[in-house]
Design a protein that fits this description.
Layout lengths: L18 E5 L4 H12 L3 E6 L2 H14 L4 E6 L5 H14 L5 E4 L17 H22 L5 E5 L22 H25 L5 E5 L7 H4 L4 H10 L7 H4 L1 H8 L8 E4 L9 E3 L4 H4 L1 H15 L10
Parallel strand pairs: 1-2, 1-4, 2-3, 4-5, 5-6, 6-7
Antiparallel strand pairs: 7-8
Helix pairs in contact: 3-4, 4-5, 4-11, 5-11
Length: 311
Amino acid sequence: MTPQRRWTSEQIPDQTGRVFVVTGANSGLGLATTRALARRGGHVILAVRDEDKGRRAVAEITAGQPDARLEVRRLDLADLDSVRDFADRLHADRARLDVLVNNAGVMAPPRSLSPQGHESQFASNHLGHFALTGRLLGLLSAGRDPRVVTVSSANHRKARLFFDDITGERRYSPMGYYNQSKLANAVFGHELHRRLTAVGSPVRSVLAHPGYTATNLQSDGPVALVRVLFGRVLTPLAQRPDRGALPQLYAATEPGAQSGEFIGPDGMAELRGAPTRVELSAGAADAGTGQRLWELSEEATGVRFTFLTPL
């Protein structure tokens, strides 16, 4: 994919009538994504852990876009019970969903466990999104040009999956396990594409990454070194969230975006720039790794994509 001109949010087609779920929509990339989709007529469900912050985000957007179609619903991706409740409520009052943007994430906290006993970054960044996608796939299959957009990171290329210590019980590194979760996002998005394609599903699975973007993921993180390095020292090199959100907006809305593509910035080292197709690491695209992570994720979440045939 080589755009004839650098793609911006002004090129988002009219989204009137389309329904989006954006996780982590109250700040950073999620807020920028929500604002851009609402500006083009999309109905956006802000899936947020803190509903007060979600309502403040809605007030901020509607101050400039009074006709924006937005609603706030609680979702704690680290808690699989919350994921189930969110999906059940959506099924109860929606006949379809057009796009799911798996955007939310946590970065480099001290080791802790989710309510179900999973390492917190793997739980929030990967398992919660795996379970959410599986529970919403029926609604997506009924959608208009339906897509799952999963946000990974260029860091996935220097990561590994610690299958022998997935919860970090023996040896935990905050950034190492953050990178693991971003690799898991990449593996999941690619494996989902393979499975959807195999059964002829209309749903596209598209991956995206924002390059280096200044968000509260770095500046408000619990680890001091991460806050200082990424939240202060390197901030002048970072993009604004409205620029960093462009790859996921392209993946969610551009008619030419294909299932299985990975969209990132076109600048040096993919740190910043306009959306373009970038390379997934060989490890992320490996079918054996995809199968192994899929089986682990099904076991950890209890969610099975029942109408996707095993590969």
